[in-house]
């Protein structure tokens, strides 16, 4: 399975590093959790039909050199039933690390506002994901084929595609285009506006951690946010999780203890070695992080259906941090079961099954090993995780082993400006207060037209999800401000 190789490789190296695993989740909860949520959402307002057409554009494999002159088919999806032509706006989703249909289906916000804005919706797939493979089945087979998997190439794809759409679609020549994205897609939306201001009039970058690089933000804020989510969701909750690590370590000292742990957690494969225990702890950590990302106010779906405010439900099991080791760990088991066995159908818990074994993980792992070097750390004092420092050298060595390449940790800020972005205009940065990824987000406006919106009760890009009867007021306010700003950009585009 794709992810296993990657995850295991890293796990063994950092003695259970969950750092790399964490970014893989960017798109999982971005997309998959939305996915079935429509079905479980209690009082859904009329959802527009998800009808779109699929197209393929002959895209250059390499926009920046002239030797590799081949083409590949980039997939994009178009929904134009509300488009007011000629000249009506185009909302352009800057696809991130996954199948574009997933993002299309699950970015309910775009579907919800299309009619009001008279907008065409376009969802463009990111190269090396979904069906958009530059070298077909060979794309992931060798580092030389992966060489064109960069954010710059992806942004150039978007620019070339938009130019083509405006030239080829009747009535689109003067259409203002707005970039929209969430997570890594949000980073791309913001960077797209920065690099190609003549192509898009503005960008909505939701839950986009554009500052989770180098030392632009402290490396431990991410885990502190996760911790706070648990701390405020029930008494003793974060403390129970903090205490669980020592209990696990103590239990793991003997083979009887390992056996006990394996049974207590109903694990599919029993823990046998130190590496297994590292992977087990990594899996638990990842579960807590995932819960923070999907802590939505209404039932949603991840691996399995989740209740509304899942962390509160989890914390009901974690109110006695001082209980005996075995009791504490049994409570932890009950808590993770909310995540993995809410419907009561799980046969056993599989510690290799955290995110998904899809190609999305693999591609992101490569991107994390080249451009997307995001430092994370924890200290077990200001957060509830085991202490772990950020070690770029070890990270780089792991990348070299895995991919035959070494990361360039300073490239992203060099290319896109890091914090020096105040000369740009018309970008909205929205972040949820519950979302660990808000750690690397822009949470204060950087001027009139670089607008930060914080949604205190929001998890990972709640604003991009469909309207829901249980939405907190703060996300309704955020969405209406987003629509107002988009209307302003559209109006300005037509009046200058
Ligand atoms: C997206 O939605 C369409 C229509 O509802 C469905 O057929 C398709 O399987 C979905 N694709 C994904 C990747 O979710
Ligand atoms: C999942 O829940 C059901 C019903 O409570 C239980 O019988 C089963 O053992 C649980 N599975 C795991 C892996 O704990
Ligand atoms: C655990 O998950 C991995 C990855 O999805 C899979 O390959 C493996 O077969 C699963 N193991 C069991 C016992 O279900
Ligand atoms: C941003 O500006 C500061 C102060 O002028 C400078 O020290 C820093 O190197 C700049 N960063 C980038 C990425 O250009």
What can you see in these coordinates?
- It is found in: Lysosome.
- By secondary structure, the protein is an alpha/beta fold.
- It has two domains: 53-214 and 413-494, 3-Layer(aba) Sandwich (Rossmann fold); 219-343 and 376-390, Serine carboxypeptidase S28, SKS domain (Four Helix Bundle (Hemerythrin (Met), subunit A), Up-down Bundle).
- Helix content is 43%, strand content 11%.
- It is built from 18 helices and ten strands.
- The protein has an eight-stranded mixed beta sheet, sandwiched between helices. The chain has a two-stranded antiparallel ribbon with strand order 7-8.
- Helix 2 crosses helix 4 and helix 2 crosses helix 12 (274-293).
- The radius of gyration is 22 Å and the shape is globular.
- The model is unreliable at 1-46 and 355-359 (pLDDT under 50).
- Bound molecules: 2-acetamido-2-deoxy-beta-D-glucopyranose (4 copies).
- Residues 35, 50, 99, 101-102, 105 line the site of one 2-acetamido-2-deoxy-beta-D-glucopyranose.
